[in-house]
Amino acid sequence: MNDSETTRRREDILRAAVRQRLLDPEDALLAGFIDLDGVAASVASLHHAFPSSVTVLHTFAAKANSLVPVLAELRALGMGCEVASPGELAQALAAGFAPERIVFDSPAKTTAELTHALDLGIAVNADNFQELERIDALLANRPTPSASRLGVRVNPQVGTGSIAAMSTATATSKFGIPLRDEGNEERLLRLYRERPYLTQVHVHAGSQGVPLELIAQAVARAVAFADAVNATAGRRQVTGIDIGGGLPVNFGGDTVTPTYDEYVGQLRRHAPGLFTGGYAITTEFGRSLLAKNGFIAAYVEYTKSAGGRPIAITHAGAQVATRTVFAPASWPLRVTAHDATGAAKDGPATAQDIAGPCCFAGDVLAHGCEVPLLEPGDLVAVLDTGAYYFSTPFQYNSLPEPAVHGARGGGDGTEPVFETLRTAQTVADILARTTTPTGPSTEAAVPAG
Ligand SMILES: *Cc1c(COP(=O)(O)O)cnc(C)c1O
Questions:
Q1: Is the C or the N end of the chain the one with fewer CB within 10 Å?
Q2: Residue 249 lies in a domain
Q3: Structural domain that includes position 155
Q4: What is the pLDDT of residue 167?
Q5: Do β-strands 309-314 and 294-306 pair in parallel, antiparallel, or remain unpaired?
Q6: In the chain, which stretches have pLDDT less than 50?
């Protein structure tokens, strides 16, 4: 799709959502939307980018959007799933992923979690030397071998991207075994040689803000390490490399850049050994598959002016865009203005602050956003929020999590068809979550309806 087609698609979804009352100024003040056709196209471009001569398992990083129907959709499109907690594992299983298509990465796996993973046969990437010792002990005590593919996450220590909090291949990162620290590479080589069960090497150099070249260099270090294991073992002990995710997303416009094809081009340049067929590849993309296929829409409740600056108070704030509100320079979001029907609003671009409903001054989604002047009853769309936004809520002010709707089809005079991916949280849900069974009665407090 070109940029104007993307704009039209979003407007089609928004107008249909208003007509079908998925957005309503009384009952549905905000909602998340995922273009399921767009998700299918993104998954297809990922699959297409890797050569068919290599065995590849593409997993989706569940933390980017952990709604079970979304995970089930991705499974149906041929993806596996990467999980990093018991909650995400439960979501992946509920979405129907086969154990051999699930990868478990977490820096804090408990003995019980590891036992469960080995019982199920899901792939496990150990984060550190102590975890490896634990896995040793668990394997030694098992009555039957585990079907799990087992590996170690290495930290190639190649450097930092533009967002420090998202860079995991730094000298002092908390993730993986740092290969450049004194003696570590030799120690890890020895550990692999002594443990034939270690058949995988894992690397994930970071998310948003890490340049493609740096990610590719990190992968190259992992391939070099795997080659070294196999050379010392005198056989192909390491049979798979998990290259993680981390393809950055363009939050500045509708163009998808960089593309999976460009990434694979960088991998071919820096890590050609990945494509010789000697290693099966696992990937773990999250943001790049979902971000641009989702948006949040919210009503404008009031408009005002302060210090000469127009401000629109909307119903989307820190509860759905936490990272943007707390780190606006790292996580800028585009906002578009629409009238009450969902149609793009006309009028001269006017710098406005798009604020949320939370009771703290920093709750602003976009500062000085240049859109036609908003009025009460209008809608704003907060773009590129399909990953890491509405699925990772912040429960400030006890604001409810909005509904999320999937859209399919439409165009050529027909409306997109919606399906519920998550129902909206109610005040009763929030009350139940913040009350103990023996506490004061909640009955009187729950509003009717
Ligand atoms: C977060 C994470 C991913 C996904 O990163 P994206 O930037 O969303 O592609 C993949 N692997 C691991 C280990 C992660 O922590």
A1: C
A2: yes
A3: 37-291
A4: 77
A5: antiparallel
A6: 449
